[in-house]
Amino acid sequence: MISTDALHEPERTRIAVIGAGHLGEAVLGGLLRAGLPARDVAVSALPAERAHILAERYGVAAGTDDAAAADGADIALVAVPPPAVPAAAAEVGPALPEGAVAVSLAAAVPLARFEEALGPGRPAARAVTNTAAAVGRAMTALVGGIHLDGEARARVGGLFSGIGSITWVGEEAMDAVTAVAGSGPALLYHLAAAMAGAAVDQGLPPGEARAVVVQTLFGAASLLREADRGPAELAAEAAAPGGTTREALDRLDAHGVPEAVAEAVAAAAERSGRLAEDAGHR
């Protein structure tokens, strides 16, 4: 649940979600699931049909005007694509009341560039999160701006704690966080699709294959979270010599899967850095 202390209950805290695409909608859904009243949320999205769909789906005020959505908000979550961040921030900053916080959800855009576009003195933060926010299980890394004081930091942390786990990091870590926390869910979905397809090849009906894969990954992640051993140790425990699991792991190693995963994470981190450079942010 969202921290009531962080949201200053019983006073209302109004949240704006600017540019609610897939990630913005996931965060929106997670916040509502965590108890944020729909009446306290305003959303902007393009095209107008998309805004209408979000209004119908979640019962929130939604339109196409970023400044109108931000007007009066206590926290504005700017979830537009990286190239659109400066323009969106320039609209949102002047519309926010004094003391309101703007948070960029975009990959690759440095916090200093976001702050510059918002306007002088605006409290700001940068967040890298993922679509597991929709079910309250996101991993969010946060960086605080130069004007983000302790009270505002607590508000931002409390908000994102409502959709999963948070960690405050230095901005130099954000490319790595983007590669793991931001891109990581898609890597697991890719693995899940491959496992389900392989299960079908081995004779399971598609529906049963999906159910088996989903519960297996869910159970493994739950154990990994609660166990006092690391992932390598858990894998070793499950792989008895001469058994089926050992055979499967050996085949993955023979195909260089660990190296491929390392290369995938490195490529995502490098791409995050290149996106910033291509946009002139670094």
TrEMBL record:
Residue span(s) of domain Pyrroline-5-carboxylate reductase catalytic N-terminal: 14-107
Pfam families per UniProt: F420_oxidored (PF03807), P5CR_dimer (PF14748)
Q: Domain Pyrroline-5-carboxylate reductase dimerisation: where?
A: 171-274
- Kindly state which reaction or reactions the protein catalyses: L-proline + NADP(+) = (S)-1-pyrroline-5-carboxylate + NADPH + 2 H(+); L-proline + NAD(+) = (S)-1-pyrroline-5-carboxylate + NADH + 2 H(+)
Record-linked InterPro entries? 6-PGluconate_DH-like_C_sf, NAD(P)-bd_dom_sf, P5C_Rdtase_cat_N, P5CR_dimer, Pyrroline-COOH_reductase
UniProt-annotated location(s): Cytoplasm
Identify the pathway.
Answer: Amino-acid biosynthesis; L-proline biosynthesis; L-proline from L-glutamate 5-semialdehyde: step 1/1
Keywords on record: Amino-acid biosynthesis, Cytoplasm, NADP, Oxidoreductase, Proline biosynthesis
HAMAP family, alphabetically? P5C_reductase
Q: Which family does it belong to?
A: Belongs to the pyrroline-5-carboxylate reductase family.
Protein task = Catalyzes the reduction of 1-pyrroline-5-carboxylate (PCA) to L-proline.
Name of the protein: Pyrroline-5-carboxylate reductase
Which species does the entry assign this protein to? Answer: Nocardiopsis endophytica
